[in-house]
Amino acid sequence: MTLYILDSDHLSLYQRGHKPLAKRLLIIPPNQIAITVISAEELIRGRLAQIRKATKSQERVYAYHWFKRTLEFLRDFKVLSYDAQAEIHFQSFLAQKIRIGTQDLKIAAIVLSQEAILITRNRQDFERVTGLTLEDWSIL
After folding, report:
1. Three-class DSSP category at 87
2. DSSP string spanning 89-103?
3. Distance between CA 113 and CA 121 in Å, rounded?
4. Main-chain phi, psi angles of 79, to 5 degrees
5. CB 125 within 8 Å of CB 104
């Protein structure tokens, strides 16, 4: 069984109702779709930043509304842990001096430790990680 892991960019697209991605997700069994705890962290951090920036009443109401919606949205996904095997991959990437962001390296480490396919639009960075299989479901 192939496991498909949505990167943060695809997760955000899905949350915003991106039609090509939603269509693709309908034909994949739900038990074959997952996200990483890193992507969940990124979405939550973004919402917390919105809350911190909100200075007016309506901005705060809006920010907390979207924070709650994001928590509810994340509940629908299998969230993969960052475990000891992922840490081994991550340390290997650091030793290889792969020049992409730390969060992306952690996502790649989880994907490789799960022997999964990463669903992302960020080919430019992730193609630097040897052995990573990538697909982009944002286009038909």
Report:
1. helix
2. HHHHHHHHT--S-HH
3. 21
4. -105, 120
5. yes
Q: In what order do the strands lie in the sheet with 133-135?
A: 78-80, 33-36, 4-6, 117-119, 133-135
Averaged confidence pLDDT in the chain? 96
C-alpha distances in Å from residue 121, one per residue of 7, 57, 63: 8, 36, 26
Burial class (CB in 10 A: 0-12, 13-18, 19+), 26: exposed
Interval 89-100 mean pLDDT: 96
pLDDT at 139: 85
pLDDT in tens, 34-80: 999 999 999 999 999 999 999 999 999 999 999 999 999 999 999 99
Domain 4-40+78-135 fold? Rossmann fold (3.40.50)
Read off the pLDDT band of 84 (50, 70, 90).
very high
Residue at token pair 């911190």: 52
Sign of the CA dihedral running 51, 9, 102, 113: positive
DSSP 12: H
- Tell me the mean pLDDT in the region 84-110: 97
- Please report, for the chain, the start and end positions of each structural domain, with discontinuous segments joined by +: 4-40+78-135
Unique residue bearing structure tokens 């990573």: 132
